[in-house]
Amino acid sequence: MAKDQEFGKKSVQILISSKKQKTISRSFSIVGKGLHYGRDTRVEVHPAKVDQGIVFQVFQNHIDRIIPAHFNHLHSGNRNSTLTKEGISLSTVEHFLAAAWGADVDNLLVKVEGEELPAGEGSCSLWVENLNRVGYEEQKLNRAYFQIQEILEVSNRGRYLFALPSDFFKVTYFLDYFCGSTFALCVTFSDNEGGFCQIAKARTFAFKDDVQQIIHAGLGKGVRESALILNEKGQSDKKFNIEGEPAYHKIIDLIGDLMLIGHRVVGHFIGIRSGHSMNHQMVKLIARKARLFNE
Question: Is residue 58 a contact partner of residue 67, using CB atoms and an 8 Å limit?
Answer without folding.
Answer: yes
